[in-house]
Structure formats: C-alpha cells, structure tokens
Design goal:
Length: 396
Amino acid sequence: MSSKNIAVAFGGISPEHEVSVLSAMQVIASLKESSFNLIPLYITKSGRWLTGTPLLELENYQDLDQLRKQATDCTFSHNDIGKPILLETEKKSFFGSREEYPIYAVIPAFHGSEGENGSFQGTCETYNIPYAGSGVFASSIGMDKVKAKELCRSQNLPVVDEFDFFEKEWENDQQTILHYAEKLEYPVIVKPTTLGSSIGVTKAEDEQALIEAIETAFRYDNNLMIEKAVTPLMEINCSVLGTPEELQTSVCERPLGQEETLSFEDKYQAEGGQKGMASADRVIPADIPDAMTEKIQSLSEQIFKTFRASGIARLDFLINEDTEEIFFNEINTIPGSFSFYLWEESGMNMKELMLRLIDIAIIQHQQKMGRVRSYDTNLLDEKAIKGIKGLKGSND
C-alpha cells in the first residue's frame, strides 16, 4: 500500500449533500486502482467529521444512522514533526489506539454552501495541507452569484441584467422589489445567491408566480437574485483544467431538460441518479457552430483566469437562440461529477483527470512553500514590549 494518503472530503452542511456523496464515490472508484491510499473524510449534515472504511462504499449511505455508528470521529491535526494528518479523535476499543494518517493531498468533493464556498479550503490552508481545486478567493466568489457577475461585469465579460435583495428588504418593501422585477420584464429567474444544482431556482412568468418563487427561495438563502430570463434559451457548458498560468478547455456540452431552465431532477435524477451529473441528458460535443464553440471556450479561459481558479471548473453559459448572444451564467469550482464526461470526450478518463488534479495541487503547494512565508524579526523583544507598555500608559 502506498504511503501517500489522499483524503477525499465530501458531504457537508448543504442542500447538495447527497450530490456531494455521489461525486466523492466517483472519485474513490476512479482511484481505487491507483498507487494512493484513499481516506474518506465525510462531514455529516450536522457538521460532524467522520472517517473509516465503511464510508468508501455507496450502498452504506442508505442507512446513515448505522453508517455513523460504524465510522470514527476525526479532525485535522499535526504529528510530532509538524506534518498535517487526519487524526481519529476516538478509540474504537479500550485497547485500540487512535489512527493518524499523514495527508499527501485532499480532494474536496463538496457541492454548495460550506465546503465549496472556500471555508473548507481555508481550513486546509490553515493546516498547510495541499488540496485539489480552486483556492479561497475563487471558491468564495464563484459561490456568490451576485459577486461573480459583478466581477465579470467589471472585466467586460457578458452577463444578464439582474438585481439582488435580502429577506429583510423583502419583508419591509415588497413593492419596490416587484417594481424592479417588472422593469427587467417578465419572464424572470429567481435564484438563491449561494446555492448550486438549480436548488430553489424558479422561472416566473408574472408577478404572482414571482412572489411564490421568492417565498420558496428564501427557504434556502437570505439573499436572492432576480435575473432577466434569456428566451429562447439554450444552455452550453465548458470545463477548464489547470491554473491561470497553464490551462486547457474541454469540448462543450448542451444539457437537455424537460424545462427550458434545467432543474435539480434534470441534472441528478436521470437514470436513478446513481451517476450524479454524469446521468443527465446532454449532447456532447454540443451541436453548435464551430465559431460559437471557440467563443465559449475563449470566454471560459478568460473567466477561469479572472477568478484565479485552479484545478477543474465548469463554466455555464446562457445563449439566446435567436440572436446567438452569449452570457456567462456561473462558474462551478467543484463541478458535479468533476465534469469527467466532458474530459472523456477530450481523451482523458476519470482516473487520469483525478491524477492531474492531485498533481496540480501538489505543484501549487510546493510553489507556495517555496516563497518567503515569514519575516525574520522579533516584534516581541524587550524593546518592543516596552514600547507597547508605553502606549498603554499614554492612554491613562
């Protein structure tokens, strides 16, 4: 068994918890025949960190209560020589010992909310652990649909008109918000600002439908975005792999759904939902003109660089079928199923994709560690302490 442990982190406090489990199982399945030792890091819906071999098998998630009993609580820590480890925080038996696993790298497989929004990435940074995918900045901005569009708009990247508001604003002044929506002209799209997988997303054709959509969306987020609907709509997605310095784009895809706007069910529950995003209906490569494909790939590269993304991301675009206008919709810094189905069409299977993500994580971590990360001075010497005492005295 390899001494290089890869922790696959998934689950989390998110409406997309189950989608995350599916993506993680795909990662684990793809790397089972690799030279790495796979360590699951499952975060429950209550925020509890668990590890253990039962977490490596998808069928065990059918009974979460039993699974939690079989798993072991864990946390990040450091060993005696300062290396990051995944540490079991309880002993399974009186005579047993707590296991500790030195971490070579982490593959975050979270979707939505805590996990994909930069919070888990920040934890990895704190423990100095290499991790696959985008850093704190790209993850946090990419998760916030409003700020993501503001960033793109500042770089003259095409986005659809929108406005956002908070729940308290809706409670205090509904009429003003409804007026703004009317100015956009119906139909409009209501979106929770910080969720993915189309959860809480509704197309509203009139004011009454809009009010109902807003009330539903506030179940998931306290900040909503109302966006002018693109009609007639065609959605096109493209994946980017690499770093802002060196990257490549995949082929494009055209997702298919029962509605004009793809739902959660369209994305994840086709064919029983066991394959995550890979089960969704789609046309690959997208049946669009070559010039449009090249434009979308070029925009994908620009946006990936603008967000300082790394690892893998999926860029989603809205196309007006009549005018062929292209609008950036969102960036997914941990795309469902890691968009492996797009890279298969580009000649790279799931295992090769995961190994590439690990390589990028290690190289970026090594580059960071090669920089000056501390300044050789002692601000806490006797002279400095006397100065601080003097400042305190001056306030008396």
